[in-house]
Amino acid sequence: MSRMRDYLGDQLARKVKAHGLVVWSDPEQEYAAVWPSLIPEGVRAEGFDGSWYELRRRIEAALGSDAPPKLVVYVPVPEPDDDPLAEVRRASGAFKLRLATLARRSLKGRLPEARIAEIAGGARTIEQAEAAVEGASQADVKLAGLLEATDPVGMLVEVLTGVADDRLDTRQAWTAVMDLARHLAGLSAPAPTAEPARTLFESAGNHQSAQPDTESPDLHRLHLFQHLLLCDLARVTEDALPESLAAAWTRPTAKQRGEACKVVKRLIEGTGSSAVYGRLASDVDDRLGLAGTLEWWPNVHEAAGTPAIDEAILAHCLDLLEAGRYTHALGIAELRLELSPSTQDPASGWGSRWRALAAVAGLHAEVSPGAPPDLNDSGSMLAWYVERGWKADRAHRRMELACTALRTFGQMEGAVVSARTAYENWLENLLERFVAAVTDGVLDTGHLMRQGDVHDRYVGPEGGRTAYVLVDALRYELGAELADALGEVTDRVELHAAVAAAPTITQVGMANLLPGASTGLRLALDGDQIAVSVGGGAVRTVADRRDLLKARHGNVIDLDLNEASQMGEKALGDTVGDADLVLIRSQEMDAAGESGLLSVAWADFENVVSLLARVIARLAQCGVERVVVSADHGFIALSSDLGPDRTVDAPNGAVGTTKRRVFVGTGGTPNPATSRIPLASCGIPGDLDLVVPKGLAVFKAGGRRQFFHGGISPQELVVPVVVAELEQASPPQKVEVAVTVAGDRIMTGVFAASLSFVGDLFVQEVTVRVVAGRGGGQPVARIVSGDGYDPHSGAVMVAANESQVLTFQVTENLDADSEVELQVFEAKSGRKLGSAVAPVASRVVVEESLD
Questions:
Q1: Alpha-carbon separation of residue 162 from 212, 219, 410, 532 (angstroms)
Q2: What confidence tens digit (pLDDT) does each residue in 606-615 have?
Q3: CB 696: neighbour CB atoms within 10 A?
Q4: pTM here?
Q5: pLDDT tens digit string along 10-62?
Q6: Residue 844 and residue 749 in contact, taking contact as beta carbons nearer than 8 Å
Q7: Do residue 252 and residue 197 come from a single domain?
Q8: Residue 591 sits in the same domain as residue 567
Q9: Which end of the chain is more exposed for a tag (fewer CB within 10 A), N or C?
Q10: Contact 661, 637 (CB under 8 A)
């Protein structure tokens, strides 16, 4: 404790020792915030909280024991005329020590008499007096009575935010502010005379009539912020400032620089302060003429910086990418996302730019090692893909998703094009080698399970109630994201890989996930179409698949994902009833890819993963004990359509059917750019052949040439098997999450919303998922960043009694006068915790292509 608190506590302890019962009178509330900490050990304390009679009841209870009382009664209000505590006061020892007296007594001999007098006369609370003692100037004593903050660092932060301008104007205290800044942080004098680029803050008062100092508040504030900013830059760069910055900076002492950096740090960390920082940083750029003039210098990326500094760092990262230093560029981009306050301001665009740069660097880092080295058999190549190759596909998808948030590519266009080219080259090389390995041998699955074993291994065994979720086109890397997302629902989640049946089309893959498919799957031609059977029975439709599951499990409830997602826990529970197996079917992933609007589908893929996680969380509340999620096939997705040079003809004179990535049939002469592979060498008995492109190409079979499947690449063949053991969540606490959209409306493709809830003894944080949809349905925006947001699981951790801001990117066209509903669901149970509706003020258009 401080010397003043030590002295005050000692005096109070003496009074308790002498009288036992003490009434501490503090009508000026000079100790209101700290009095409980000053009560002597072993002494009971009761304070007035608005009710005299409630206080008296508590006092009487304390006095009712046989032992002599040791009790301090704190009264922070004047004594009323008809005093309910009159008898207590007469029986007690009175204690009152004014703050001014405390300062004079406790600080005597420690500070000059004049300084003690300043503190005694200026401070209104003990915290303000203590803050004044920490400083050597007189300025902070005057400010202590005007600012909410009680410490010098907090005072300067409050000044920078502009919230105290009227009070400082009225009391003519701007000179005191500058004195404090000079003492604490080494600010040079005098303040500049040039006007700032714009008025930073508007206050209720009229600054021109009330301001007594020679400079405006904005000039003082900008002068102060510039100095603090340069101190922070000097800290991370070991005083190696460029000449243009060094000339504008007066070097403070090491201690002062440390205090200056504390001010910057606290300003950035303050709620809503990122916008304040952004305005000040932009004006420093304008004032010093930094835009377009700075170049990167060592370690500058470790400072908060300004937009001009971010530009210099971005240019350096682009140079690193061109030089092949991908992990270095990635590290800097991730650090900027953490440190740069500009990334928290959606209007600045810096969050989108740094996320895109990080994604570009991440993709380069994944594909730069090339396809699997020294592996020439399909089994080893599939094992390599499951171990690490899939991460390149995820990195590519994430890069394309990040790029959809860019207003323009600008100077990043070359880096984006280079990353796209690198991915396609990597993919081309992988496909050529894999197809060659299968052509020269067989489709060897190695230690990986075959898709036909999934049902009998994970769904077939007797046990608790199971949900079987069949997702059309859930690529392995998206299955990995689903497994991460389910980590918020249960800690018992497993991710396995299975090798799908060829050809990788829905008709075949869905049949291969049924009972008996491991030995009973067969393909034949019915005219020129594929006929699929399991155990001798034709499997053509959803009803055929459902009948096979009913024959194995009994009572099967069949729902599509969209239908299930619209149900609350009770409605879903009523629908599930006493079913032996819950079948959930999802076509959303494939539909998004086949839509032809892949710039929108990149976000839709993540939306489907989030939707699956929410529905599975609700299934746990319906008594489902296990969920098994798998897919019919994966897919290949590119940045743009394949050109005519990557389309090939189907076999000439053959009988069969042609899909975009495969011909299934017999006879004919294959195109030299294709390979003929007997279906039997892929593990399915029969005399049919597969003809597939040797590399990254498609047949002339109609349909889009940007998203496709059907072939035998690892991306198309390897599917996830996610197995989650569920437990019903405990009864929910009464948590309601408030949702507020910034500005109460949506005007652009990027908007912000805040989440908050009032905690209690039992709930101090809650993990949620947030869905921004049209009428509670299809998502129309996604979270790109924010407080507590985990991009890997898609969940948001909301702390009690705090406002947490999330930034959203619109992913679907929005009409003016339409509405977007933001719904908050508990991640573990899927229960709805809150919602808000925001009107769309003007039409928002999502581009259909990035090219």
A1: 17, 12, 34, 72
A2: 999 999 999 9
A3: 20
A4: 0.81
A5: 999 999 999 999 999 999 999 998 999 999 999 999 999 888 888 888 888 77
A6: yes
A7: yes
A8: yes
A9: C
A10: no
